[in-house]
Structure formats: C-alpha cells, structure tokens
Amino acid sequence: MESTNWMGILSALLPSIVAIVMIIVSIVLKAKKDSMTGMSKELSELVLTIIEAAKDKHFTQKEILKIIKEGEDVVEEAKKLLNP
Q1: Cα(66)–Cα(54) distance, rounded to whole angstroms?
Q2: Do residues 46 and 67 lie in contact, with contact meaning Cβ atoms separated by under 8 Å?
Q3: Residue 45 is part of which domain span?
C-alpha cells in the first residue's frame, strides 16, 4: 500500500486555496470601500512566496515557515482593515 504524497497534494491545493482567500478578501474590501494597498502588497508577497517554494515541487521546512509568516502578515493586515 502506497503512502499519500502530501507534498504533491499540498502543491496542487495551495494555489487554489490562496486564490479563494484573495477573492473573499477582495469582496469584503470592496464592500467596505477601503484602500487595498496594504492588503494587496501582503497578498502579493504571499503568492510570490508560494510560487517560489513550489517551483521544484518539494517544500522545505524553511519554505513552509516563510509561507506561514507571510500568511500571518496577511491576517494582520486583514484585521487592521476589518476593525474600524
């Protein structure tokens, strides 16, 4: 019995999850008519980090930690925009 290739699944699902999150954030920000400059910057950095890490289809621990840090930055920026 073969084990599940989680890195392969992760590299396939992660861009889709990021795209869905970006769509939801965009809709929320448009509804609030807030400036998206900070959020756009953070989301761009997150996407670039994921793309850079997924180039070789093997995520290292360092790359995963960098993705998590960028994700935390996105969450912090979202909190700033959603809390008046």
Answers
A1: 12
A2: yes
A3: 34-84
